[in-house]
Design goal:
Blueprint: H1 2-23, E1 30-39, E2 42-44, E3 52-55, E4 59-67, E5 75-86, E6 92-100, E7 109-117, E8 120-127, E9 133-140
Antiparallel strand pairs: 1-2, 1-3, 1-9, 3-4, 4-5, 5-6, 6-7, 7-8, 8-9
Length: about 140
């Protein structure tokens, strides 16, 4: 009789722990590819090759297109790396840049809210250092 109670307790514990882990899972962990970009509310066509963003438990690395200068159509595919914190309660992410192709970005922090749309997440209005607003939608690759 005690054996059945013990098994029922273990089964309950396993089910409860599995549902807790899924509920608290960080939705940004994974590999993402840029889908749409808007600069100050003007929709832009993402440049090729598509930008990639990878989130681990604590770190983020991403590619981005760096224009040689304002008048040049040529770009370099550049990279940024840093740490991030995902606030489960508010849905906000804070990224702190540790390494960046643009040295002026090193040490900068950005905050944005993550809203899930099926297999994508939406980054709402990231205010950059120069005051411009960048809005991006990323599609999960992995």
């Amino acid at each position: 009789m005690n054996y059945k109670k013990y098994l029922m307790f273990l089964l309950f514990l396993i089910i409860f722990s599995c549902s807790t882990v899924e509920k608290n899972k960080n939705p940004v962990i994974g590999v993402w590819e840029i889908e749409t970009v808007a600069w100050n509310d003007s929709l832009m066509t993402p440049l090729e090759p598509n930008q990639i963003k990878i989130f681990t438990e604590k770190h983020v690395i991403y590619t981005w297109h760096n224009f040689e200068n304002e008048n040049s159509p040529d770009t370099l595919l550049s990279v940024g790396f840093g740490e991030y914190i995902y606030n489960e309660n508010s849905g906000f992410v804070t990224e702190t840049i540790k390494v960046h192709s643009n040295q002026n970005m090193v040490g900068s922090s950005f905050n944005y809210k993550v809203v899930k749309y099926g297999t994508s997440f939406y980054i709402q209005d990231v205010e950059l250092l120069d005051g411009n607003i960048l809005t991006e939608t990323w599609r999960r690759v992995e």
